[in-house]
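Translate sequence into structure tokens.
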Amino acid sequence: MKFLLIGNPCFCAALKALGHDVILASRPSAYPANTSIDIPITITPTQVETINAALPNGWHPDWVFLCDDSTFPIVIGLESLPYPLAWYAIDSHIQGSWHSWYATVFDYIFVAHKDYLINYRINERGAMVKWLPVFCDPAKDRYLDREKIHDISFVGTMNPDLNPKRVEFIEAVKKRIPINVAQGEYVEIFNQSKMVLNQCVQNDLNLRVFEVMACGSLLLTEDSNNGLKDLFVDKKHLALYHQNDVDSVVKQFDHYMENEDKLKAISQCGMDEVHNKHTVNRRIKMVVDLLGKEPAQKLLEKRHKQLPFIKQNVAKVMNYVAMVYFYQSETTNDLNRAKRLLLVCQNYVKIIKSLS
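Result follows.
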């Protein structure tokens, strides 16, 4: 199949490895310099006609697949395309305030967090909605046979403005056990750690769950109902602690430090489970199998009939985004930044008017 992939390039290499024809339109500023982007998106939001015009002559995608890249919509007018539209919604737990409106644009929606599936099932639209958890990428998330120089580590953003509860929690843990705390690149640290602590933003089943186990460390993660226990078994694949409970973390840490045979057995079992069932290749194969069964013409006819309803919802999204930028322009102390934010706000207002 031919895929026009927009946004997060997480599935690009896996789709190509399966033999599919893929063109990636994405923001160079959001990803490493070595990311191969066919159509750079340098202005956001950009009109879909700009991307369409950059496609090779005679090249028409079987599916346009938008992958969430943790930002507001970067392309305007997707609903008008004469191709089936799919969306991988990853940040449901953060962006839920506008995702339910935006969901009306798409013919097929994959949702990373099981608890949020209901937010994407819009009766008037009737799009297919499936749970598709995040995953590991074996190309980088793998066992490297390093010396275990850390008993336990945490790798993640430690910004009190963005996540004050995390900072408070990790600092409290640090006072009780010798945890190695780092940010940025994680593969070496995970491989050098007997255990890795995971803390979630809002009860999300995050990438760190899969990355830790893929690297062969024992994962200590929050007990959560957001799909985690549908995929993994406590004390078999990983170890669970009570959310924000420092005593629970310390208890688990002490137990596995005193029982390293159990620690190694669970680490191995978790690594095998992730590499066998929860890789990017497995996820995208499921996506392709499902999308390949959908009748494109019926999807397009249904979307065309519902365009007025869809555009009303897109206008709601744009209004929400405009208000966010307006609020930021009003609350910043940097006058130049305030002017830039207000200009972005005005651009979104123009989009709202074009949809009415």
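Note: The chain is about 40% helix and 15% strand.
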